[in-house]
Each structure stands twice: as C-alpha cells, then as structure tokens.
Amino acid sequence: MRLPRATVRALAVAGALLASRPAHVGAQTREFTRQGLYVATFVPDAGANLKLGREAASEVRDRIGRLVRGRDAEIIDLGDARRLFPDRTFSLDTIYTVGVVETIARHSRADEYLTGRVAQGGGAVRLTGELRLVRDRGTRQPITASGPRVEAAAEEFARAVAAARAQLIHQRRCANALAQNRPSVAVEAARAGIHAFGRAAFARACLVTAMRLGGAPAGDLLGESRALLDIDSLSRQGLEAAARALDALGRRDEAAGMWVRLIATDSLSPSLIVHGVLGLLEGGNARRAETVIAAAAAEHRDVLEIQRLRWRVAFENRNWPRAVETGEMLLARDTASARDSTFHLRLAVAHRANGTMVRAVELSARAVSLFPQDGRIYAQYVDLVRAESDSALPRGLAQFPKSAELNTLAAREARAKGRLADAAEATRRALEADSALPQGLLALAQAEFDLGRPDSALAAVGRALARGEDSTLVAQFALAKGNALLRAAGQTKARGDYARALRFFELADTTRGSPQAKFLRGTAALQVASAALREAPLEKDRALSCALAREGAASVAVARAGLTAGQELAPDAARQYLEYVGQLEPFAQRLVGGCGDAPAAAP
Fold first, then answer.
1. Which of 166, 364, 404, 578 is the most buried (most CB within 10 A)?
2. Secondary structure (3-state) at 138
3. How many angstroms separate the Cα of 379 from the Cα of each of 198, 356, 376, 388, 547?
4. 217: left (phi over 0), alpha (psi -120 to 50) or beta
C-alpha cells in the first residue's frame, strides 16, 4: 500500500520533531542508546476477524515490554505513531504492507519492527512473524510460537523475540567495525552474536559480509552463507555472499541462481537490479544477465542506469540487434552516453556487426567531429570507410541490380583492381539499364581494349559515335588507342598489328581531323604498306600475293596523303617518311602491274 502525500509530509515533520527529543538519562554511559521496537498489527488468516490480529499484537507487545529491560528497548505501537501525526491517517483497522510498516517504524524513530500473522484452529493459536532492522532490511529474523490461547502463544512468541534480540548488541558492534574497515573485529563480534543466540540471522548476515570483505576462503564463506539462508532464505547478505563464493569456486551455474534470487528479493529496486546483474557479469554469467536485464529494462524504461547496463550486457553478449536498439536510445536520451567517446566507438562497432554499415560510418564520422583529439575514433573511422568501400557497392547492386550508375561504379572499381572481365561485364549491364549512359560505350570500348580485343573496342567506339557521343571525345579516344597499338606493333613488326592501329587513326581522322591524326594515319599506313610489299613477292599463292601487292599500293597512297597533310606536326620526320613513300611507290606499281587480271584472294 502506498502512503498518501499528507501522511508522508506528516512523517517527515514527526521525524524532525523526534530528532530533537532529549536523550535518556544515563545514555552517555551506555555503549548504545535505547532501541525502539515497533510492533505492527498481526495479519489474521483468511476468514478470521481483524480483532484477533490486534489482540495478538497487543499481547505480544505487552509481553515483550515486560521481558526486555526498559532501558534497552522502547516498545512502539500504531497508537504511538498516530499520536505523532495529527491528520490521523493511520487506522487500527487496516493491515499495512511491510513497506508501509517500515515507513511508520522509520519515522517513529524505531530501530526494529515486528510483523506477524495469527492463525487459529484445531484448539491452538499459531503465531509466525519476522523481526527486521530499519537500518538494514536485507535480512529477517523468523519468529514462531503456538499455544492453546492467544495469551500463551504471545508469551512464547515474546520470549522468542527477546531471545533473538540478544544478538543485536553484537550485530551493532559488527556493523560498526565494518564501517571502520576492520573486518576481523567484525567477524569476532558477529560470532559472539551467534553464540548469544544460535539461530541469529542478523549476526550471521554481518558475519558473511565481514568474511567476504576480509577475504575469507570461498568454501568457508559458502558454508556460513548457507547457514544464514537456512534461517532466512531471502537474506540479501546471504545470497550475495553465497553467489560470490560460488563464483570463486568456479560453480557458475549455482552462482547465477544465487544472483537471480538476490535480484528477485526486490525487483522494483533499480539499485539492487544493477548490483545483481553486475554480479552476474563479473561471474561470467552474461547470458543469464541478459535475460534478467531485459525484463528489468521493460519494467524500468525511464531508469537510465538500467538501460546503460542493458546496453553493456547486449554488447558483451554480441546481441547486436539489441545493442543497436538500446545504444540508439541512450544516444538520444542519455547525455552521459552521448559525451562518452568509448560509447560512440562501441555503438559504431555494434552497427557494423549488425550489418547497418551506413549508420556505423555515419556515427563514426560524427564522433570524429565530437572527439577530434581521440586517435581511436579516427582510426575506427578510417577502417570503417575502407570496409564500406568494399561492401557498399555489392550491397547496392544486390538491392538495385539494374542501376546503371551502380554498375558503372562497379566497372570502374573492377578495372582499378585489375578484374578486366568483370569491368566489361558491369559496363554491359550499365548500358542495358541505360543505353544513353554518357560515355557508356566509350567505357565499354576501354574494357574491350583492356581485355586485348581491339576490334571489339573499335566497334564500340563506332557505336558511340553513331549514338551521338561527343565527336571530340571519340576522336581523342581513337587516337590514344591507335597510338598504343602503333607502339605495340613496333615490337611485333606484324602487318596486322599496324593495320589495327591504322583503323583507329582513320576513325579519329574522319571524326575530327587534326594534323596529329593525319600524320599518325600516314605513319601507320606507311608501315602497313612496307610490310605488305615485303610479303607479296614471298607469297607462293599468286592470288594472295597480288592481294598483298594491291593492299601495299593502296596503303602507300594513304601514307602519302596523311604525311603530306600532317607534315607541320613533325616536318623532319614527315620528310623522311615521304622519301620512303617515294621509294615504295614504283615498287608497288610493278607488283600490281604484274598481277594483271589475277583474281582476288579469298577472304
């Protein structure tokens, strides 16, 4: 049950008033001040009258008051609490939850509080309850009793409470020693408490904490933790100590069970959830941690500490979809994460692993701007950009296989990497997607040329010209490729190689005539003529010999025309070449004249 706001305000006022009350006479001579024990109304079993609960609590309260010395404990009831609050919010006819009872006890300046249940039947009254400490709600001291009547059961119950309280002075000594970072002293005090009361839950809780902080052997710590859990199965100190001991012993599955039980003791407490999940992580139980933190994150959507932990767990488990989801949420909502360079690094890593590469590059580029002095950030950016350059194009082609632009990029990349066949194929796909692609046919011609297929390249250049490609570009392309072929032919001295170069020069000259194109056309034609006229007399087949003679004669004419028209480009070279043309012309005429009506050679 949640307290009304007016009650909360009244509790705060009462706390301030009580804080100013005078200490009891002689308190300065005692080790500890007198404790306050708040006894709440007992909860009757189903079907029983609330009066039975009030009666049981009253009888227990009275008997505890008689059993404990007045200077050691002050017994507080709801009536005392009501007198502290003028609004009279609290009702004697209402059963309050443990949380509300603790609030009443805390603001009534009680140090301890007692809750219980009463059941009646079979000629007996049974009382079960729990003694708790306001300053440490992690452990409970169970109390049970029974009797033929309420009075007898209450007497036994009160004696059990008084016996259990024998541990408290030792427990307080233990707690104080821990506050002073003296675990060995704390252990000694806790053992004295257990000696005073054999089933001491509070003293054992302090004992296992002191042992854990003092570095006790894991086996000893586990034994004491289990002794505590046998008394209070929900003891937080016992569960944590057992979990850490089991982790130290390498028994991870058992340890994980203890951490989960610890978190379950108050799943509404963000701090306890975080503490328990961190324990799971440290013990190597990241998978169990993810299950727990996922449920907690759904319950506590606005608690950033839990969301940060969910991000960490997802990242460590490489659950990339969840890491990306949580990381993006933190980037938008959590200023601490947004200012953390390591968070930016890891979020980019998560996106890359998740396959959302574009977002990874985007985040990394942003991080370079946010953290300009962080070398890690820049190194990651460079790595991501390189990786993206390798993966972006294939990913785009898979999504847009008929994109002319992407296929053009693929062709360019393949050519740069020496994959010439792939470059040609990608260029063909680009042209299939867009036949009017600017310079597309020239790109195909380049690909064919790179593959050693100059005739196919020349055909592609011709198609480019026919489709309206810029004649200047076509002429420059043909001239460059003809030059390359002419240089190669200079190594082989083969007539066919010179003829291929000549065809490129002819296309360049007829497309966009220039002195360079004419001169090179004449130079290539001269080489074709020279080779043909050398081969013609050696050929035994008369038809083929005559065909070579005619080719030589025709090429001589082309050579003279080209060299004459382009001689301004290289006057000296043109003069020498023309002199050679003059020597070839009569020889060519004799060879052709000797052929008479010889039939042409078969193609």
1. 364
2. strand
3. 63, 19, 5, 14, 68
4. beta
Model confidence over 285-330: pLDDT tens digits? 999 999 999 999 999 999 999 999 999 999 999 999 999 999 999 9
CATH class label, 320-399: mainly alpha
Query: 48: phi > 0 → left, psi -120 to 50 → alpha, else beta; which?
Result: beta
Could you report the per-residue pLDDT of 215-234, keeping only the tens digit for each? 999 999 999 999 999 999 99
pLDDT digits (tens, 9 = 90+) for 253-287: 999 999 999 999 998 899 999 999 999 999 999 99
Mean pLDDT, residues 92-112 taken together: 81
Which conformational region is residue 238 in: left (phi greater than 0), alpha (psi within -120 to 50 degrees), or beta?
alpha
Q: What angle do CA 361, 362, 365 make, to 5 degrees?
A: 80
To 10 degrees, what angle do helices 440-450 and 471-492 make? 10
For range 99-119, the mean pLDDT: 87
The distance of Cα 296 from the centroid of its chain, to the nearest Å, equals 19
Domain boundaries, the chain: 1-11+33-249, 260-317, 320-399, 494-603
Which segment of 18-27, 112-121, 138-147, 427-436 scores lowest on mean pLDDT? Answer: 18-27
Question: Of 296, 304, 295, whose CA–CA distance to 331 is shortest?
Answer: 304
The full DSSP string for 229-265 is HHH-TT-HHHHHHHHHHHHHTT-HHHHHHHHHHHHHT
Distance of alpha carbon 167 from alpha carbon 113, whole angstroms: 15
Compute the average pLDDT of residues 158-173: 95
User: What DSSP string describes 5-53?
Assistant: HHHHHHHHHHHHHHHTSPPPTTGGGSSSPPEEEEEPPPEEPTTS-HHHH
Do 1-11+33-249 and 320-399 come out as alike in CATH topology? yes
Cα distance between residue 579 and residue 559, in whole Å: 11
Residues 216, 223: Cα–Cα separation, whole Å = 11
Report yes or no: 552 and 588 within 8 Å, Cβ to Cβ: yes
**Amino acid of residue 479:** L
274 contacts 297 by C-beta, under 8 angstroms: no
Q: What's the CATH class of domain 1-11+33-249?
A: mainly alpha
Q: Is the pLDDT of residue 7 over 50?
A: no
Q: Is the pLDDT of residue 1 over 60?
A: no
